[in-house]
Design a protein that fits this description.
single chain; alpha/beta; Aldehyde Dehydrogenase, Chain A, domain 1; Aldehyde Dehydrogenase, Chain A, domain 2; 2 domains; 6-stranded mixed beta sheet; 17 helices; binds nicotinamide-adenine-dinucleotide
Amino acid sequence: MSQQSTTYDAIPRRPYLASMSPSKIFELQKAHFRAHPNPSIAHRKSRLKALRSALLQQEDALKEALWKDFSKPPYEVELTEFLTTLIELDHALRHLSDWMKPQRKRTPVVLIGTRTEVRCYPKGLSLIMAPWNYAVLLTLGPIIHATAAGCPFVIKPSEYTSHAAALLKDMVEDIYPPEEGAVFLGGADIATELLAMPFTHVHFTGSARVGQIVMTAAAKHLASVTLELGGKSPTYIDPSADLESAAKGVCFGKFSNAGQTCIAPDYLLVHRDVAEAFKRALMAEIQRAYIPGTGDADLTSIISSDHLARQQDLIRDARDHGAEVVVGGGSDNTTRRVEATVILEPPEECRVMQEEIFGPILPFLVVDGIEDAIERIHRRQKPLSTYVYAKSDAVMDRFSESVRTGAVCKNTTMLQFVQPFGPFGGEGNSGIGRSHGEAGFKAFSNEQVVLKRRWGSWIVRLVQPPYSRRTSWIGKAFRRFT
Ligand code: NAD
């Protein structure tokens, strides 16, 4: 049986009605969704294709905007914003028809004579809140999944990347009429106003602190939530690791985007046997590619003066606690750049060991082995990602089974983000729910069980009132087939 779907001629409209309030948009979307509760696959794909061509058309403008926002290197933008977004977009376009197909389910003996399938329908009006650190990817990513699932959406990009957010607003509003998709710019005030509205689903990417605010607001309407948060992602270096390659992987994960990445290695757990050798490899890699001045165009700035001051405080606090800064430690208030910084053995009570760093500062802890490393990971909240550099899979497996983390990567960092076949997300403090690929589609979908009796209504009548010993006998007979 095929799913019923609505087709309609939604013509993208410009100029967008800028004067519309969030509540007016909400009412518009609500009425539209009631009239079109299940947009056709052709309609969803046409929006995704329009998004794809707009993204490519705006590539240079978005690179310029991100340079203005926090001097993000254009080459890095290509890799970490455009390639990543296009991977999600093309994956959705390629697999949407499979995701939308009703899934036939097997029939247990007690349900003999029936047939069951699970159908995915759009959940309904969705609120998306995005952070600034990957302003394009993390704004468009949830839009891709809301569109694939057929949900109208309202999105609020981060106020920190204002140039990129303004362009994204124009882009989205060129493609989606307001009853399908709308963008509101601003900070906590507008976010609070939007959170008070009875959206069906809220997709939030950001800090755990604001994640709690989002979940509290969503609870008022019993809205479902996807919370993509952050945390402290550890990296273990085993004596069997290829140290040079490990240093390159760690530096790329930690220092690209100036460490302002949710899945950046937050701190190192280096086996004592290779601590000195790995320190040398790390310093050589930093000298080669991550020293400001030699290649400023390769280093992103810290997003704001307040965020910069926080990074400076973290370094000062570690020094005050007697930790040694073995490389870096400096910063420039004009360019808002912080040097790639490695801090040796910061004590547990240091802020760099208590908070998500979210900057180019890398604590280097020496451990006595795998179990010691795992024990130290368990002292903190569950990490979003865990990285392991080692030769054998057994080392990776030990971390995989012991640490409740969204992803474990062996001999690489960050690549889990661009694996659209795998769900992405955290646990507790690092997140709730999953996104990317089919998981992203499902997050915005209501999975509905459709069970129909094809024959054998008399079987059910046998166990309906008036009850008798026969009812009990039939019930017990069915127990044998559970
Ligand atoms: P943030 O939590 O400060 O802001 C995220 C969004 O929430 C923004 O749109 C912001 O305007 C809004 N907001 C801020 N204060 C609010 C309030 N009081 N009430 C309602 N809304 C409010 O996060 P950020 O600084 O933009 O991003 C950094 C954090 O995001 C880090 O913790 C990082 O790990 C996390 N992150 C997670 C992922 C992921 O996929 N898991 C990706 C990127 C960033």
